[in-house]
Every structure is written in C-alpha cells, then in structure tokens.
Amino acid sequence: MSGVIGCPACATRNRVPVAAAGAPHCARCGADLPWLAAAGDADFAAAVDTPLLVLVDLWAPWCGPCRTIAPAVERAAQVLAGRLKVVKVNVDEAPGVAARFGVRGIPTLLLLRDGRVADRQTGALPDQALLAWVQGQLAAGAPPRT
Prior knowledge:
This protein is α/β, with parallel strands linked by helices. It has one domain (33-140): Glutaredoxin (3-Layer(aba) Sandwich). 27% of the residues lie in helices and 28% in strands. It is built from four helices and seven strands; from the N terminus they run βββαβαβαββα. It has helices at residues 44-47, 64-79, 95-100, 127-140; strands at residues 2-6, 13-17, 35-38, 53-59, 84-90, 108-113, 116-122. The strands form two sheets. A five-stranded mixed β-sheet has the order 3-5-4-6-7. Strands 1-2 form a two-stranded antiparallel ribbon. Helix 2 crosses helix 4. It is globular and about 45 Å long. The N and C termini lie far apart (31 Å).
C-alpha cells in the first residue's frame, strides 16, 4: 500500500510507500517529502522499520481528541520531512498493535527509535507542544527506553 503526497516545494504528486529504505524525496525536485503512512497488525513492523524517528499515532475514528490532534500530527510530518515518519494506527482495526504497546487510552502517541519506544504521550497535545515534544526527541537523539 502507498499514498500520494504533494511535494511542499514544487507541488508534484509523488507516490510514497508504507515501507521503504531511507526517506522519500520528490521525484521532480528532490525535496524531502512528509512521510505519513497508515498501518495495521499485518504491516506495522514493516512500517516502523526505518532509521528515522517514527511517530506512531494510535487513534480511532470515533475518538474526538484523536480527530483534534490529527492536524498537528500531519503538521509534524510536514515540518520534519526527511527526519520523521508518521505511522497512523486505527486501534479498532489493529488490536494487536494496541496490545503490544499496552494502549489503554487514546490518542496515544509513541516515538519509536529503532523499533523501540523512546517516549510516549497519552491524550491530546496542543499543536506546538506536540511539535516541541518530537523536536526534543530528535535533538536529543536519546536511546530508546526499555
């Protein structure tokens, strides 16, 4: 499965796969592309297998706070294109992923580094707080928590 992302630099539409080596770049101008992917139980491991920091958004369509933070999650992918991958997981359709991370409330946001949890937030964050949280983890380059 792949998605189509418009290049923020030249507006060319690019197909971006759920899983790939490296980070996506525009086929026309070479600019870094925001990397947003939807994953479920079957393809989650492949989706988070990247050297980039991964922001996992565990959400459900019926969850008001999940819908509230969705634009902030997408904005983080745009602002941090080339350094961050966002993987959205609908917990109703991927109960295995939710169980793996012990999700008891949504929205739950995870930052994964090398497939391991580096940090976690439960509940909606304001737009700037979410971006600052992710940028802090990028700047720190902190090793994952066990």
